Amino acid sequence: MESRIKIKDLEPNAYQAMYGVEKYLSSTNISKTYKSLIKIRASQINRCAFCIQMHTRDARLEGETEQRIYALSAWRETPFFTPEERVVLALTEEVTLITNNGVSDAVYKEAEKYFDDNCIAQLIMTIVSINGWNRIAVATRLAPEHI
After folding, report:
1. CB 23 within 8 A of CB 129
2. How many domains does the chain have?
3. Considering the domain boundaries, does residue 104 fall inside one?
4. Which of 2, 41, 49, 143 has the fewest Cβ atoms within 10 Å of its own Cβ atom?
5. Which residues of the chain have pLDDT under 50?
6. Is there a domain that residue 49 lies in?
């Protein structure tokens, strides 16, 4: 598959705006584990090979286990994730697939059991951000490195 345009080169201000969101996200209290789970799971759903490679590599460097990474697409069928992580993953799926049914009351109420409003806002912004990056990478056919 051949890459298309490089938005980073053509529209650097657009990338700078996206990096601004990333800078904000780095200042939040969302754990690296939650961020990794969000980035990997959304990238799987969006079929973004570039982002899957990047974020699984980063997650391993931050101490995430291979077992959990491999099981992430089937997280509901495993005992590997905490109740809080399950809520994060459910929210990630519903925001990523927002056109299906929006974010359900059940998932939102479950999130409220574990997270305050600010944390939920930060989680949603993390999900929105990776979905934006996924769409850029998929639309421009940004290829993962061959390692």
Report:
1. no
2. 1
3. yes
4. 2
5. none
6. yes
As a whole number of angstroms, the distance between CA 134 and CA 31 comes to 21
Backbone torsions φ then ψ of 91, nearest 5 degrees: -65, -40
Burial of 2 (0-12, 13-18, 19+ CB in 10 A): exposed
Neighbour count for residue 30 (Cβ, 10 Å): 18
In this structure, the dihedral spanned by the alpha carbons of residues 21, 96, 115 and 26, taken in order and rounded to 10 degrees, is -20
* Residue 60 is assigned to a structural domain of this protein: yes
Return d(Cα 34, Cα 20) in angstroms, integer: 20
- Quote the pLDDT of residue 144: 81
Structure tokens, 145 = 């490195």
Any domain includes 19? no
Query: How many Å apart are CA 58 and CA 52, to the nearest integer?
Result: 10
User: Other C-beta atoms within 10 Å of 92: how many?
Assistant: 27
